[in-house]
Amino acid sequence: MGWGLLVVGCFLAFLIVKWVLRSLNCWYYERKLGERRYDLPPGDLGWPFIGNMWSFLRAFKSRKSESFISSFVSRFGHTGLYKVHMFGNPSIIVTTAEACRKVLSDDESFKPGWPSSTVNLIGKKSFLGIFDEEHKWLRKLTAAPVNGQEALSIYLKYIEESVIEALEKWAGMEQIEFLTELRKLTFRIIMYIFMSSESEHVMEALEREYTALNYGVRAMAINIPGFAYHSALKARKNLVAVLQAIVTERREQRRKNSQSVKKDMMDALMDAEDENGRRLTDEEIIDVLVMYLNAGHESSGHIIMWATVFLLKHPDVLKRAKAEQEEIVRNRRPGQNGLTLKEVRQMDYLSKVIDETLRVVTFSLVVFREAKKDVRVCGYIVPKGWKVLVWFRSVHFDPETYPEPKKFDPSRWDEFTPKAGHFLPFGGGSRLCPGNDLAKIEISIFLHHFLLNYKLEQCNPASPVMYLPHTRPKDNCLGRIRRVST
């Protein structure tokens, strides 16, 4: 009896301490809001210092990633907005299309609000750390070379040649980590666009550092050996050193040959000049390169892998997608060698396969904003200075927009165009990913050649799925690429 009372007493004491600490955390951040705190959305700010990060990481390192948001829904209802304490800041999670559209499109009320740890890793002079006129200028400068008919037509040939070469190489290997090889392929492509070419040794070194960098982006900012963020900071330092050497060498080449023709994005960045005659510093150029090289290969590589896996698991979808690609080849003009941009635009069903993959996977699960002033969103107040986490996963898995949302079904896109804010694979508003068109073309070219000539045999079809830093099989899709008979 005595031991039983002691256990009960300890349990009650734990509950009291837990309640006190959580209440103290709420009081600390809400006390300055005065009467405004009554207009905050429901939720909780978790524990002092760590906030809700333990529950976030626990959910996303398990097989039940959706449990993080569902726990708020079960406790507070389908309100669409929830107050939390994430990545070191009091924040509001927005989970509905209406709220996401408001936050992403209202530049007068919201600015980038990425955690300082993420900004430190990607770069203070990258898009994550700049806004207003500086962002508009740099975005316009960097978006032009990766968009438009002429630019995309130029890159298409290089992408196709790289894809054909990679598939032939993989087919001759006993087994590969499909995702790892895809990331190398997409990294080679983005390196070509930004730097024309670099040695295989340099590309492999950079790609390895990016792997370590990405593991720290969603981690807690603990700069102690053994933690992901500490390793990511070291990777960032190594990346900057390599890129600085490349930038220095390019500047020297241009100094010796001032009449050289612009070749790539690096030349464009070095030639950029605003209305006041200001040019980009090496630090600014390097931060832009770190950001673009990372975003330009991670998302494409993962989406190609998942699209391939989904096709493998849905033979009816694969059959229809392959038939479309065969039809494109049959209708090709005599003597034509390789794909054209027009043919890529005609891949209607394959485009639906890609969109459905983007929806189901939701590569970027969240983006961060910060309220410039007190803002009312869907009936709740977002206080000035608080972070806003735009939760794409909830939007893409809304059963009212996407019936049976966990089901992979490209046919759901037949005669269906989602309303604004309901499909956000590349973000939205003024910060919509500038390379989204290039990414979809890159994915389409790969799947075109894969569907016509190859198949994937996974070694571990039931491999557990990891959700951080990005959704992937634990074994990186270990398997074999085999050429199919035609």
UniProtKB/TrEMBL annotation:
Keywords: Heme, Iron, Membrane, Metal-binding, Monooxygenase, Oxidoreductase, Transmembrane, Transmembrane helix
CDD domains for this protein: CYP90-like
Topology in membrane: Single-pass membrane protein
GO biological process annotation, one example: gibberellin biosynthetic process
Cellular component, GO, one term: endoplasmic reticulum
Known cofactor(s): heme
Binding-site residues, heme: 433
Listed InterPro entries: Cyt_P450, Cyt_P450_CS, Cyt_P450_E_grp-I, Cyt_P450_sf
Superkingdom of the source species: Eukaryota
Chief subcellular location: membrane
Keyword NAD (UniProt): no
Associated pathway: Hormone biosynthesis; Plant hormone biosynthesis; gibberellin biosynthesis
Gene Ontology MF terms in the entry: ent-kaurenoic acid monooxygenase activity; heme binding; iron ion binding
Location within or outside the cell: Membrane
Function comment: Catalyzes three successive oxidations of ent-kaurenoic acid giving gibberellin 12 (GA12), a key step in gibberellins (GAs) biosynthesis. GAs, which are involved many processes, including stem elongation, play a central role in plant development.
Annotated family: Belongs to the cytochrome P450 family.
Name of the protein in its database record: Ent-kaurenoic acid oxidase 1
Gene: LOC105173422
